[in-house]
Write a structure and sequence with these properties.
One of its GO terms (biological process) is cell surface receptor protein tyrosine kinase signaling pathway. Pfam families: GDNF (PF02351). This protein folds into 2 domains: 17-106 and 370-413, no CATH class; 121-337, Annexin V, domain 1 (Orthogonal Bundle), CATH 1.10.220. Helix content is 57%, strand content 1%. It has helices at 2-17, 29-37, 40-58, 63-75, 79-82, 93-102, 121-135, 144-154, 156-170, 181-194, 197-204, 211-218, 223-226, 237-245, 248-260, 276-286, 316-327, 330-337, 359-369, 371-385, 395-400, 407-413, and strands at residues 293-295, 303-305. A two-stranded antiparallel ribbon has the order 1-2.
């Protein structure tokens, strides 16, 4: 019994230390929710917003309900909740994400300016060092993906979690010829969230010069279970994205990917945020969701979603945009191409905690982070005050209040 207790304590410590805390001044959304619910006015407004989100998941709300939702959002001024973030792989990640989206009912699916996740400078610096070390390693003809798998096996945590997801993704459901995709996805996410990037990224992005290596790389995430359909048919990309948007975790990982993998012709990395490191992490975050991407074949480093645009009709261009996020993305392509085989295995150590800032510094940080949210609320107040006017002048308001906007223009034009 004592031995089991020791093992359990070691496991818990390993899980906790693998998740870096949020930077000072940014609160976890679950903690921000607790703070809001301690205040009667904030609690009432937040309850309204949660109701709005739950109703939106069932069916688009009517005009009156939309106005009530916008009024609640406009009146909410609790800075920790407006500026809160979440952590990938945290124990309460899905709860945190529900809170995050509840106070962001205005953020559209195409909004590339925000991610639910916060990447600390320390973590990004560590990721950048991994990519830099990997890209400097020479390729001497060896099978880099085989070496990455061997390195993973030598590290107990990587080896055990890799065996866990391989088993989950290859084991057949009793009485059927297919796997349990949900269990496969969960095990894949656990591997990518718990294993250091030196190993996980080495397996995902190992460079290959022959098809044998390329096939090992392509099969790393067990495509036959993680995303391919049993009949070999590809779903429509619009349907795939629609399913993703109804899932809080998938929606958040996709928003993070869109935010961090935007292309730019004015950056050496090809990335708008000039950090291919963050793009790689966001790409890996999609693996184990409805929108799991992978390599197209064993002879290329090109990646794509398992979907097509057949039967898209008048949504064909929108469907192509989904495909191009992966197939025509200079930021993602450059980020993957700079990644080599895994550098030497890291020495596990616990970083000393950062000094805690003063309450005044925290408040200033929160104010800066929430400035954009409050600006949106100011715009909302103006929209609400003019909602009875014949036409709305904001594209955001028009999208949220289609029944109330631009009626007079339509009638006068007809």
């Amino acid at each position: 019994m004592l031995f089991l207790g020791i093992l359990l304590s070691i496991f818990i410590q390993d899980v906790v230390t693998s998740l870096r805390p949020l930077p000072p001044g940014i609160m976890d959304c679950v903690e921000a929710e607790s703070g809001c619910e301690a205040d009667p006015q904030c609690k009432e407004l937040y309850s309204t917003l949660r109701y709005c989100v739950s109703e939106e998941e069932v069916a688009p709300p009517g005009s009156k309900a939309r106005i009530e939702c916008l009024e609640a959002l406009s009146a909410l001024h609790y800075l920790p909740l407006l500026a809160c973030k979440c952590q990938r792989g945290a124990r309460r990640e899905e709860h945190c994400l529900r809170v995050y989206w509840s106070v962001r009912i205005l953020q559209s699916y195409e909004d590339l300016e925000a991610s639910p996740y916060d990447d600390s400078p320390v973590e990004m610096s560590h990721m950048a060092s991994i990519v830099a070390a990997a890209s400097s390693l020479p390729l001497d003809g060896q099978n880099a993906c085989l070496k990455a798998a061997q390195d993973c096996g030598l590290y107990e945590k990587c080896g055990s979690l890799r065996s866990e997801y391989v088993l989950a993704c290859t084991k057949r459901v009793p009485g059927s010829d297919h796997c349990n995709r949900q269990k496969c996805h969960r095990a894949l996410r656990r591997f990518l969230e718990r294993v250091p990037g030196e190993y996980s990224l080495g397996l995902l992005f190992c460079p290959c010069t022959d098809k044998l290596c390329g096939e090992r790389r392509r099969k790393t995430i067990v495509p036959s279970c993680s995303y391919q359909e049993r009949d070999g048919e590809q779903p429509n990309c619009m349907h795939l994205q629609s399913s993703c948007r109804r899932d809080q975790l998938c929606r958040s990982r996709l928003a993070d990917f869109q935010h961090n993998c935007q292309s730019s012709g004015h950056s050496p990395s090809g990335c708008f945020r000039d950090s291919g490191t963050v793009c790689l992490k966001s790409y890996a975050g999609l693996i184990g969701t409805i929108m799991t991407p992978n390599y197209l074949s064993n002879s290329t480093m090109d990646v794509a979603l398992w979907c097509n645009c057949e039967g898209s009709g008048n949504q064909w261009k929108e469907c192509l945009k989904i495909q191009n996020m992966f197939t025509n993305n200079a930021c993602l392509e450059n980020s993957i191409s700079t990644m080599g085989s895994s550098p030497p295995r890291p020495v596990e150590s616990l970083l000393p905690p950062s000094p805690r800032p003063s309450p005044l510094d925290q408040q200033n940080k929160l104010s800066n982070n929430a400035q954009d949210e409050l600006s949106n609320n100011a715009v909302l107040k103006h929209q609400l005050s003019t909602v009875a006017q014949p036409c709305c002048h904001s594209s955001v308001a028009t999208a949220l209040l289609p029944q109330l906007c631009c009626h007079s223009q339509t009638h006068s034009g007809g």
